[in-house]
Amino acid sequence: MFTDMKEALEAEALELTPLGSDQHSAASVVVAHHARDKADLADLLGALGLPCTEDDLVRLLPHLITPTTTSRPEIRCPSTPSPPPPPPCSTTATIPSTSASRSDCRRANSPTL
């Protein structure tokens, strides 16, 4: 809350520009990543004043978290290249038996000089 009336009037005089369709789409995708189901998505979009017609909901359904998925999909900008895949594992150490002690495991996995 403003204590100075002059500051309040200056803040009210600021002109706000409406969001563009790209901003609405990006915000809708982020909201979809946090929704539990289609009804929850419709409620969230409506509460935020984002478009929530049936066509909008259908377009956002792939972004919902389902019980079978354990993580949220990663959002990448189209211009951002994907990171390179990790190098293949090239371990030649043998797996010690279950009766081996920790020191045996360390010796089996340490490089020989």
Q: Low-confidence segments, ≥5 residues, pLDDT <50?
A: none
**Structural class, please?**
mainly alpha
Q: Order of helices and strands, N to C?
A: HHHHH
Number of strands: 0
> What proportion strand?
under 5%
The dominant shape is extended
Query: Kindly, what is the distance between the CA atoms of the first and last residues, rounded to a whole number of angstroms?
Result: 70 Å
Largest beta-sheet characterization: none
Radius of gyration: 27 Å
Instruction: Summarize model confidence as the mean pLDDT.
Output: 74
Number of helices: 5
Helix content: 40-55%
Structure description:
With 113 residues, the chain is mainly alpha-helical. It has a domain of 49 residues. It is 43% helix and 0% strand. The longest helix has 14 residues. It is extended.
Features:
113 residues, extended, 0% strand, mainly alpha, single chain
Present the secondary structure layout.
Layout: H1 5-13, H2 21-34, H3 38-48, H4 54-60, H5 102-109
Summed up:
This protein has 113 residues and is an all-alpha fold. The protein has five helices and no strands.
